[in-house]
Amino acid sequence: MSWTANTISELYKSRWQIEIFFREIKNLLHIKSFVGTSENAVMIQIWTALITILILKALKAMAKYGWHLSNLVAFIRLNIFVKIDLHIWLDKPFDEPPKEPNDKYIKGLLF
User: Fold this and answer.
1) I want to staple 7 with a disulfide (CB 3.0 to 4.6 A). Which of 3, 50, 61, 104 is the partner?
2) Which domain holds residue 82?
């Protein structure tokens, strides 16, 4: 009862930012609940989600195509196991892929 109105409003704003963060994680990455209940399990899932969002935002920034983040996530989910050149696909997602992948280029990326 000794806190000022300004302090309470700042706490509420901070709490609201946390709520927005978790809403975005749930909507974007479809995380509906935490897998584990320990503090470590929850922290691992939160850090994994943060890293995933950062990678997706970096891919969006690198792409020449005007992706919306939710569309990029959906298209990556659809193509997650397809062998493609990611940089080319990010720039021109609706173009026909090359008939023969450049194996030397792909091997160079992997090894």
Assistant:
1) 3
2) 33-110
Terminal Cα distance for the chain, rounded: 62
Q: Is residue 16 helix, strand or coil? A: helix
CB-based contact 42:36 (threshold 8 Å):
yes
Q: Do 56 and 25 touch, CB atoms closer than 8 A?
A: no
State how many domains the chain has.
Answer: 1
pLDDT band at 40 (very low <50, low <70, confident <90, very high): very high
C-alpha to C-alpha distance for 81 and 34, rounded to whole angstroms: 25
pLDDT tens-digit map of 61-91: 988 888 888 888 888 888 788 887 888 888 8
